[in-house]
Design brief:
The protein is an alpha+beta fold and about 140 residues long. Helices cover about 30% and strands about 45% of the residues.
Amino acid sequence: MQHFEYSIDVNIPVRVAYEQWIRFEESPSFMPTVKHVVQRDDKTLDVTSTLAGMRADWTAEITDQTPDARIAWKSTSGSGSEYTTTILLQPLGESRTRVTMKAEVDPKGVVETVAMKLLGRPFLERRVKGDLAGFKQFVESRRE
């Protein structure tokens, strides 16, 4: 299993950061590999993403939504790989928040296994960093 953890500071209040992360259907606006998300109910997401140009459809279970502190989800079916993502939010004052993304990926599906063999760990590290950078740009530009 591959483990990644990165943080970024954003110029928005922790409440705004939390509320944006739980708008799962807006994830494609700042996560380049996520193409489509449908939230079926309080706990279930249907996700379409691409990795190394290959499409993957999968279902995720929302495992934690602690207001202004933590959001987590994990894959339950679909692509074959196991994904677990946790977003931690730490207020740095009234209008600044540290966002930490912890991701675990166990590439078992064909798409992910091929991508890992071709592109390796640096690709997935860039993906996590890119998702956080995209989040920062997205939420800060919406605030202006």
